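Open question from group meeting: does this chain pack into something compact, or does most of it stay loose? Before anyone orders reagents, we agreed to write out a predicted structure and look at it together. Recording both the input and the output here so the notebook holds the full record.
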Amino acid sequence: MKKRLSGLIALIMMLSIFAQTAFPVSANEAAEDFKVIGLEASRDLFSMTEVRTVEVQADFGKIVDLTKLQWTFGGKSITEWRKWTSGNNYNGEPFISVKEAPHFVDGTTTVKATLEFGLLFNRENLSGVRTRYQPFIGDYELALVNPENKTKAAKTVTLNVYDQFLFYDQLKPEIDQIFAKAKADPDNNRYLEYQSLGKTVQGRDLHFVILAKDKKAVDKYLNETLPTALENPESLIEKLKTGTMGDYQVPVWMNNIHPDEAEGVDVSAELLKKFALEDEVTLKTGKGANEKTVSLDVDKVLDNVIFLYMFTNNPDGRVANTRANSNGFDLNRDNHYQTQVETQQVTQVIAKWTPLSFIDQHGYVSGFLIEPTTPPHNPNYEYDLLYHTMIDQANAMGQAGIGNSKLTSYFIPAETWADGWDDATPAYTPMYAMLHGSLGHTIEVPELSQNGYRAMEGAGLGAAHFVTENKDQLFKNQLEIFARGVKGEDNRAVDPYFINAKGESIGRVRGENANFFPDYYVIPVDEKEQKNSHEAYKMVQYLLRNGVKVEQTTKNIKVNGTMYPKGTFIVPMKQAKRGVANAMLHKGDNSSDWAAMYDPIVTNFPDLRGFDVQAIRIPDAFAKDTSRVEKVTLPTGQIVGNTPKQVLTNTNNDTIKLVNELLKHGLVVERATETKAGINRGDFIVNTKDLQSYGKNYYFEATPAGTTNQVKTEQLNLPKVAVTGSNQLNFSVRELGFNLVPQAEADVIISDSSSFNPNSISGKSFVGIGYSAVNAVRSSGALPGLAASRTAGGHEGLIKAVVNDHNLTSGYEKNELLYTTQGAWITSVPKDAEVLASFSDTDDFYVSGWWPKHENAQGQTLAITKNFEDATITLFANDLAFRGHTQYSYRFIANSIYASVGTEVMKNGKGKGKVTGKEVKAQNNIIEKSFFEKGRDREN
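Structure tokens returned:
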């Protein structure tokens, strides 16, 4: 058994643990000079999750006093090793016990004994203490010590959580060792390829391995089979029907995304080893009378399957033993949003390979859970072509899982539960893969243990066996999914699977349309039809990265009375990957009738990222005069004219980043505080020469400004921002380029937490986001008259909102679509507070999502601001930075920050000092009288 940790690392970790636990550091014989002899042991690997005994023996060369012999483990008496009880307390029963005392063997000088290594945490399942076990993993000296003659019989043994656990730093050496053994075997001609898919936030490699019968199989799949499947799937369906398909392989993808749900990482390593090195792999399926043994001929398996091993999408989490990545994001809620570098890189490769079977390995729900899921289902899945084979594969994996472990049962949510474990969102890795036609399964083992590992390993073997035995039918179903896309067919066979909470079939929600899918999505880039070209181009990058075909007009084309200029992006929906495109561009459905949902379901990039898209329902409207887009480069801003100053519109997040870049370099940035002379309130005025120096890598919309003396402005200082609360809020504020500082040093505090101290905001601005922050302010009594209500946390939706004209709402229109996962609203507004935004009072204010009783929010207040002594408190009842996806709302945050650091500029260009809260309110009142009634809807 190779070493689990280097000696230095092991020593540091053990000393750390000793400092925190009841284990004293023993000043015993280990510190003295002892003669060391060999200790023979029947095993040298011990598990924290499985009781094991070991027979040991040693020849001391003479008769010794057996009563004086002492046992040590890791240099400490075994009496000091006691089981965990609670907290940092290890004061329970002995962890290591003597089952057979030392005794001589047949009159010789050889001493023999038996020890039992019990359960360090007094349980087999460590899922409840998963943050505690890793420091104990390592190599230890097991010794039988004779203090009389200073002799000890010693052997190095390993303690692990389960036998196969690997730290992240051990994973690549393990992969390399497998590769080396395969290469050293002259009879092993299997193809192995290692790739790093990229780097994590902290710079670690995303390890990925391809295993196939040979390189030809990989090349044929990627260059022949898959391209034909996506462009002309019916030709392959015909070959399957006639038996002329010939030799081909399909990909099976093994995945882990929550590395603290540890077994998945190690099972992939073990399955790679088995299928790369062995000729035959044996597994048991079923229990009792149903138990049988199955032998997998590995060469036969590789005649049918290409294995893809994504050991973990989150290496930083594997190192830290956390579910989240180092930005604090759960990556299994980011496969659709793709705000994190890890998901961007992994999903791109999923799209490239389009696996037939996708297995995501998790833990630890109660019971051995294997998907498919409960309703409601995402309407972009071709569910009739997925469901039944997913059920069959789930059963194959479940039977193999219980056959390979002590578990006696498994369950499938689709057959067991009514709701609450759905696949309505493509946030999860298997659900994202299902949009590509994959059989997507989350597997949840119920234990972090040796037993849980064995169940997961069995499930992986069961999946490989199932695909091998049913390849043609499974691939035909995937081809049928692609064929529907290519033909633009909305097959009604899916409708029975899309039901309401009463169990009634509602099908895909088509409204007055015959086809759920439009013929095209148009993503304009001209300023007349597109409010944010930067986000439009980012969406095209996203679609291309995710395997969606995008085209661009080569001439001006008029459709439905709208002239689309040359260069307009077109997403033709007659394509195999239409489900991916529609899942991200569609407004979404209202699923509020369901009693439970597992996670938010609104994706809707146009409204949550803030760009324009049009669905076109005219067949062949763009059949001509378009060209395929292979790659796009994000646009950058263009300076207009040669005036001394430029006006930057406050319409996109990249401009906010640019402003912060200029401020960090000590350059002058003014912000308009009124709308006048062609300049809108909230626009930024900068020196042209500064823009030339620092604006090259940013997108901005500029107009020349000869003079701004007629417009009231404030000069911005570099904001010092403190963020309290969620990692996602911290990430979003950093993404905008703001300088984050401790709370005591801040000009403005941005918070979505439930903590608020009025005494801590003197001279600052406080921006509270979400129900917890609003309620914390209410509870503090700082704003008498403030009250809020909610249905429940997690209730989410895209809603119609009315946005009032104010410095803090600059760049937004009167009527907007905003987002929330808070299920909350403000019911009572304090005296003299200004309402920034409200839920629309129309009956159709709720657009999509899952929010039971959302009607209670109709017409209610969404956001307010009020002066508080020498501070300003601004509160939003909804989300502004949810999982880094609601980027259209980021400028509410930026506006609030800039309002706290502006210095009013006099007409002679000199400032009169930082504007106080009272002065800001007085200024705002004057401006409101002049401009509130004008409205600021964008002209089309």
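Observations to bring back to the group:
DSSP finds 21 helices and 47 strands in the chain.
Residues 450-487 form the longest helix (38 residues).
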